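Extended Data, record ELMO armadillo-like helical domain-containing protein
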Amino acid sequence: MSINSYIAKISVEKHDSKDQFLYDLDKTKSLCEIIHDICKICGMPISSVYGLKMIHTNVNDPTVDTYVSDQTYKNIKHNDCLKIVFSIEYILKSIIFPHINGTRDEPQREIAYDHLKKLAHDSVFIDELVAKQKHLEIVKTFTTDKTLKDEELLALLITICHLFLKGYHDNMSSDLLQRTIDIVRNQSNDVDNVQYALAILHKILINRNIEFIAWKEKIIREIPITCLVPYIRRDDGRKLQYGVLLLINTIIRLCKGDQKRHLIKEMNYTKNREDIYKYIIEEGDMDKKMEHELYVIQTYILSLYNEALNSEVSLNDNNVFKREEFELPEDDIKRLTLLLDFDEVRSSRNNSIENLLTYQQAERFSLASVVSDRSVDSRKSSTVCSPKMRHTSFNIDYENLTINYLTLEALRHYKDNHKKNYCQSQIEERVYEPGIFVTSEKVVKMLAKILDIGLDPPDSKKIFYQPIVFNSSAKNSFFLELFSRTMWLLSRTRREMKVSTIEDYPKLMRALKKQVKMVLNKRPLNFKELTTDMTNLNFDAVLKKWQEEKDAELKELLENHPCIKELREIYLKQNEQYLFQNRLKTLKTGENFHRYIDKVLM
């Protein structure tokens, strides 16, 4: 390696001045030698009180305003900028520790804590703090000094938080945990102090060291949900709200069995969900981290359906429900012929088939009839007591058919709250097959998969939260209302796709799944918006979306597939050779080069 590779041409800013000079930093020298050399050039005394800091002009660089250490100075590159500053050793010895504990000199004490607060974010400072065994003094001051001001307490909390972040938690006193818990439990504390206290508790909970098992149990025992939720209502701290959700989700993840279920039920209280909706979701301006925590808490709340989702009941079990309660009279099968709008609210009138037929034309989409003579014959033949459906592509054992309890509950909700739409779904399922129970079961499982019901732990990267989960009542829950609208959407999509045979049923369900995903990706804020989005999303939009995804996939393949990139490079070299030979031939024969004008595609 050449000598020049060890040289970084940089600029150095003088101490207590904005003046800069160029400097060739020789990485073969030690950091101490480099600092002494720079001090000599500046006419400053050679002393251990000086150090170097990175002061990049690129504010997005994580090394901005951080100390240069023996481990990091060799990463310095051309055009970097350093500044001569007081060394960490000098600041610890002469500025911070003589004054942070017990001093009566208020100005010096304020300066000491101000330095600590600023330097606590610097990983090099934290390393030096531990190397000098000074971090234990920080912890001692935090746990014993009850007269700390808010700003002083904040400086200590930030330092301790970064100690845990770097893994420096050996020999920590249990008093540290109790003091941190007390800060969180005191609702009158400063927002920033509570925020960092929450961060420390989170670092403890996710630490895998067995020494922290007792600490984790203490946190879960002494920090109840009722203590954390009020901080969500604090509109003066978005980071605080994030810290609360993060800690709640972490506590739920660590708990098991009945304790976990109890915590989830507590978060599912209407008031708690409303607070999340009002103070976090409605306010907007959320980053990806906040959106992920909303997805996590949503997944936990919806997991309350998991037991019902995985518990099955036979359709022939009359002890659980009467199958007849979901059936329509045989004579009414052919009477409803037009697709109805979704019934957003319960109808006050008696929702019988007779009354459904009296709805005005303005309430309906003018689409083709549901029933044809051929479909009626198909329906009649499908009701014959046969152990298997005749279609080999879609076999169902009707004699032993089961559905899960969640499907049963969803069907009841659909029938009781959206009667006219339920009647239409029931009629179409009897006409086109496979039947209301089979289709409802498939829709419930499809929605459960989309919403990650039962996924524990939740996906670590997803941000697929739904505002309505936090903005719905227990009576009209998000999942049951989503099921009702999805069943209505299925009826409309079936007509748009002109699906009339059981062989096309899988295609219909695939399109329906895509429609639901597209609607939920818009994150409607309430049920009215959800219905509007579903109404505006037809099958043509699904086809267009599929084509866009196919084109994007093909583009990604052509641009980034390693085999195609290799072929492109091979042919590029060959084409260059062909061009060179053709131009050389043209020059030798004395011919003119052809001029080609790029064609603009309109």
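Summary. The longest strand covers residues 7-13.
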